[in-house]
Structures are given as C-alpha cells and as structure tokens.
C-alpha cells in the first residue's frame, strides 16, 4: 500500500515527524514529494529554502518512516501523484480535502485521501521568524525599498524586487500570451476584498488590445463559478488574485479551475502561500504593504498587456 505526502520540509520539526509517522501508519511504503529549491522560492519567496533540496532529501531519508523521497520542480505535485498512483494520499490538517491537489485523481483510482491533524505550535515560518528580527523577503522593510522608491524606479525593476519575482512575472506572462495566441481565454478572479482591483487589472490587460480580441480577457464572478455557467474551457488561463491572505473562496475557485483543465496562475503576497501552492505559476510579492503589492501587480499586468498586443500585431 503506497502512501504519498508532500511539502517543502525546509526545517524539520516535531510537527513534520508526527505527520510522517502517521502517514506511514496508513500503508506499507511512504513516498514523500518535496518541492525543489526553485519551487520553494516561488511559493515561499526570497530567502527560502533555508536548506537545499538535496539536504532536505537526505534528512527525510534518515527517518524510519520515510521509504523514498522524490523532488518535483512544479509548484504542485499533481504530475508526480499521477505518475506514482498512490493508494493513499496524505496531507496536514491545515488543508481541507477539497483543497488537496491530486485528491480527485487518487479517489478515481480507488484510493483514499487522509487529513492528519497538525501538532499545535509548530511551523517552519515561525521558527525562521524567531531566529531573526529581520525578514529578508519583506520588500517594504528593507532600507531604500519603500513603496515610494519602487514606484519611482521601475526602470530597474529586477534590482528592486528581486530576480525571482521578475522571473515569476515573466513565466506568467508567457503562459497568458501562449494561451491567448492559441484562442484561449484569460479569466481574472478576485476574492471578496479584491473584486474592484481585479477589474482594474483586467482593464490593464485589455488596454491596448483590438476590440475583436478583448472579450477573451474578462473578469470571472463567484456566481458564474457556483452556477457552472462560466463557459470555461480546458486550456484557458485562470488568474487568481489575492493580495491578502488567501481565503476559502479564492482557494476553492483555484481548485475549481484546476478541475476544468485551466492553467492556474496566482497573484498573491507574503500571506498567500497557500494559494501559491495550488497554482501552476505564481507571482508572490514578498511584502504585506497593500499599495506596493497592487502597484507591482499593475506593473506586471501592463507588461502582460503589451506582450498580448505585440503578439496580435504579428498575426
């Protein structure tokens, strides 16, 4: 009976040990998928991981509960789960079953999904915060990197926000451009506190696009998702916007889009790591300053809109 679980497992703590022991008890062989260093950075932000993927792998393999460790470079373990075809899929209790990547696949193959309650008080992020008074991933708290500085120096964007963030913006831009060029739609969805900003972002994407192509870039509403009247097609891009902590609504929407075969992209920030872990690509701004976050989002959307226009001009 093959059991699979996954995570970053950056700094191993008691909560991890309990989860892995309980996971092994579900079957006979435990395979652990860990995010690559690149994948961790895209989910957790600059400064992570603390330990390299090879070091994390060796530490996990030293545990009596773990039989095999596999490294995956995507943000989600979906492809790895489909390759392994585990009998049992295990996640920590902070993930609802409806939010667990691969759950539908495992159930459809006759397997089961198990949620293990967390051990209270244990978190890698809290451990890191407790060892340093400085958070290197927080742009607005670094000297010379205030929101006003970013707003006036966007010509040197990479130097200001970091190469990892710029790379994420470019990856998302490529996904949007490729889908749009192939006749797919780009659907922007904002959580309750981001509805109006989602509209601004959509307008920025459509800004320089000819009328005949604008309808393929639009906002998607919660009512369209609830009633399943969105007209979403496999291959469409679903852009989930959540500058604050990702709530249940945005997480459920991202999972819904995955079941529809969409390419799921995320726009989030420091408190949205859970959303990032559900996306195929994600722009995660390492800050909790809302004006700064929104400004970077609009800058990204401006670049994406220009890319769409240039592609259409060459058709």
Describe, in short, the structure shown.
With 315 residues, the protein is of the alpha/beta class. 45% of the residues lie in helices and 17% in strands. It folds into 2 domains: 2-128, Rossmann fold (3-Layer(aba) Sandwich), CATH 3.40.50.620; 135-313, Glucose-6-phosphate isomerase like protein, domain 1 (Rossmann fold, 3-Layer(aba) Sandwich), CATH 3.40.50.10490.
Q: What's the arrangement of secondary structure elements?
A:
Elements: E1 2-7, H1 14-24, E2 29-35, H2 37-44, H3 53-61, E3 68-72, H4 78-84, E4 88-92, H5 103-108, E5 112-116, H6 124-131, H7 147-152, H8 157-161, H9 163-181, E6 186-190, H10 195-206, H11 211-214, E7 217-219, H12 222-227, E8 237-242, H13 248-259, E9 263-269, H14 273-276, E10 281-285, H15 290-313
Parallel strand pairs: 1-2, 1-4, 2-3, 4-5, 6-7, 6-8, 8-9, 9-10
Helix pairs in contact: 9-15, 10-15
